[in-house]
């Protein structure tokens, strides 16, 4: 028996059961499988690099069928395909699935070049499929609370700054497919975590970045058996927005002790808003006469936040809960529902545009307009 995750049953939008296929099965593939089941979807089949790998994953997670990618795409029983492979394969598989009329949930970045991203976004729109990207930090209730309060601000935000720091690549001996541009793409740190921060900033504030000045940081010139690393270990950038704000962002995957430190401060003359993904149950709000910490699940929580605050206060919600909410909302859209704040391939295209601008700025050492 599966457990219903969502605020309301998927069957409120449709009586159809969503059958899912999953392609790829590392850490994030397991996260997808758990979220599918939490949303009352059915993991119909799994595909991987080889059929043997798919069979091993199917056995591990109790998935009934191991198939090839081609078989999954042609299967009339599959409603949605989850793409959890290394980055370089995303666009090809997504294009194949969309052309077959399948809905798609694709890990980011959904394409490693801007032309690929533009083609995919156009294809998804033309085929009228639901195609979403896991910008899952949007689904923290504290994020929805911040967004709701900022929408009501009487003074505009003028300073938007923060950082996203990790340490999982801090040892020179650590090897992962993401450090190989042939698999991960031309940008590593920004394309992996920087786009999360930028998506969150634009989603919460309503501002759009219009100009970027960025620098890449390289700590290691080689790693493992690789002679040379061409992707960045970190980055710094300053930016301007369409509403007249200025901002800055610091990124690193080689900062010791920082596991997944996504932090922002969005500030105006009357109120400031601070969120820390490692302490997601809290939203700090600064004022002129007093400061306050708004806890998730508080009686004063906005309706937007309550929609995603499904555990009693004090019972921590985290990464998997956000992912579950994202998948539940994606399935609700597949079943014909209207969902606010669902990240789609249009948002994936926006991330590709930002990544291209950051790469160009770091190469030319100049401002790049978007």
Question: Topology, please?
Answer:
Elements: E1 19-23, H1 27-38, E2 42-47, H2 51-61, H3 69-74, E3 80-83, H4 90-99, E4 103-106, H5 114-127, E5 131-132, H6 141-151, E6 159-165, H7 181-184, H8 189-205, E7 209-217, E8 234-241, E9 246-252, E10 261-267, E11 271-276, E12 282-287, E13 291-295, H9 303-306, H10 319-334, H11 345-364, E14 368-369
Parallel strand pairs: 1-2, 1-3, 3-4, 4-5, 6-9
Antiparallel strand pairs: 6-10, 7-8, 7-14, 8-9, 10-11, 11-12, 12-13
Helix pairs in contact: 1-10, 4-5, 5-11, 6-8, 8-11
Overview of the molecule:
Helices cover 34% and strands 21% of the residues. The chain has 370 residues and is of the alpha/beta class. The protein folds into 2 domains: 10-136, Rossmann fold (3-Layer(aba) Sandwich), CATH 3.40.50.720; 141-311 and 345-369, Dihydrodipicolinate Reductase, domain 2 (2-Layer Sandwich), CATH 3.30.360. Strands 13-12-11-10-6-9-8-7-14 form a 9-stranded mixed beta sheet. It has a 5-stranded parallel beta sheet with strand order 2-1-3-4-5, sandwiched between helices. α6 (141-151) packs across α8. The N and C termini lie far apart (49 Å). The model is unreliable at 1-14 (pLDDT under 50).
């Amino acid at each position: 028996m599966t457990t219903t995750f969502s605020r309301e049953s998927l069957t409120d939008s449709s009586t159809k059961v969503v059958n899912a296929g999953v392609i790829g099965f590392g850490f994030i593939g397991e996260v997808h499988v758990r979220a599918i089941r939490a949303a009352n979807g059915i993991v119909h089949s799994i595909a991987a690099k080889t059929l043997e790998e798919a069979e091993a994953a199917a056995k591990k997670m109790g998935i009934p069928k191991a198939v090839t990618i081609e078989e999954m795409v042609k299967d009339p029983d599959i409603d949605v395909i989850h793409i959890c492979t290394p980055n370089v394969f995303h666009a090809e598989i997504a294009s194949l699935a969309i052309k077959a009329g399948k809905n798609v949930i694709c890990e980011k970045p959904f394409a490693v070049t801007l032309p690929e991203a533009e083609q995919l976004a156009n294809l998804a729109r033309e085929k009228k499929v639901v195609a979403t990207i896991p910008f899952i930090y949007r689904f923290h209730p504290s994020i929805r609370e911040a967004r709701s309060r900022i929408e009501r601000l009487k003074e505009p935000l003028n300073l938007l700054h923060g950082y996203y720091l990790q340490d999982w690549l801090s040892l020179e001996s650590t090897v992962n497919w993401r450090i190989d541009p042939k698999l991960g793409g031309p940008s590593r740190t920004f394309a992996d975590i920087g786009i999360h921060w930028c998506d969150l900033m634009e989603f919460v504030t309503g501002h759009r970045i219009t100009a970027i000045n960025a620098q890449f940081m390289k700590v290691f010139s080689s790693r493992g058996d690789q002679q040379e690393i061409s992707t960045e270990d970190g980055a710094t950038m300053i930016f301007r927005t369409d509403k007249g704000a200025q901002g800055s962002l610091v990124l690193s995957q080689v900062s010791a002790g920082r596991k997944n430190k996504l932090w922002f401060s969005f500030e105006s003359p009357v109120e400031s808003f601070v969120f820390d993904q490692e302490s997601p149950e809290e939203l700090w709000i600064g004022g002129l006469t007093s400061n306050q910490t708004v806890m998730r699940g508080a009686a004063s929580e906005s309706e937007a936040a309550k929609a995603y605050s499904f555990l009693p206060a004090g019972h921590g919600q985290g990464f998997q809960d956000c992912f579950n909410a994202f998948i539940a909302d994606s399935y609700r859209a597949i079943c014909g529902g209207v969902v606010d704040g669902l990240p789609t391939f249009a948002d994936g295209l926006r991330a590709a545009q930002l990544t291209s601008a950051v790469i160009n700025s770091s190469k030319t050492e100049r401002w790049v307009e978007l």
